[in-house]
Automatic annotation (TrEMBL):
Residues 19-130 form the Tc1-like transposase DDE domain. InterPro entries: RNaseH_sf, Tc1-like_DDE_dom. PANTHER family: HTH PSQ-TYPE DOMAIN-CONTAINING PROTEIN (PTHR47326:SF1), TRANSPOSABLE ELEMENT TC3 TRANSPOSASE-LIKE PROTEIN (PTHR47326). Coiled coil: none annotated. Pfam families: DDE_3. This is Tc1-like transposase DDE domain-containing protein.
């Protein structure tokens, strides 16, 4: 309104250059795995290094010698021939995955939960942002992950009913 241009109630602060970090995380019905903060863009070699040092130890802890199927989207680093070879060499089956299908990927919902819990955080630098992400990720319960995994039949039905269009998931 006229005369209120500088009233603090009418102003919203903005950040011109917000902090950003690249994070890799994984989940199963048993809970969330440790996070990996990446220092560079993700190519096949970087991704395989993450799998080697983060996914394999977590899978070993969760599953031991039991079988599991790994799910990932079709990002270029994930679908590279070298990455496919890495999975074959390690005896890890990978779920065939349709392109552009975030509604079927429960970790997208998990990241949404993390972002909502962090919405009021105001980290001042990348290290504070990493600490906030770590602390928020640590609050994820195995029950939350289990519920997201259990929602898969409903997700699939919703995507089929929507004929591939976006759903509530």
């Amino acid at each position: 309104k006229r005369g209120e241009a500088q009233n603090p109630r009418c102003l919203r602060s903005s950040v011109k250059f917000p902090q950003a970090v690249m994070v890799w995380g994984a989940m199963s019905s048993a809970g969330a795995d440790p996070l990996c903060f990446l220092r560079s863009k993700v190519n096949a070699a970087v991704y395989q290094d993450v799998l080697e040092h983060f996914m394999l130890p977590a899978a070993d802890q969760l599953y031991g010698d039991a079988d599991f199927i790994f799910q990932q989207d079709l990002a270029p680093a994930h679908s590279a021939k070298a990455t496919s070879t890495w999975f074959k060499d390690h005896g890890i089956p990978v779920l065939n995955w349709p392109a552009n299908s975030p509604d079927l990927n429960p970790i997208e919902n998990l990241w949404g939960i993390v972002k909502r819990k962090m919405r009021h955080a105001r980290p001042n630098n990348a290290e504070e942002l990493k600490a906030t992400i770590r602390a928020t990720w640590a609050l994820i319960t195995p029950e939350q992950c289990h519920r997201l995994i259990d929602s898969m039949p409903c997700r699939i039905a919703a995507v089929i009913q929507a004929k591939g269009a976006p759903t509530k998931y």
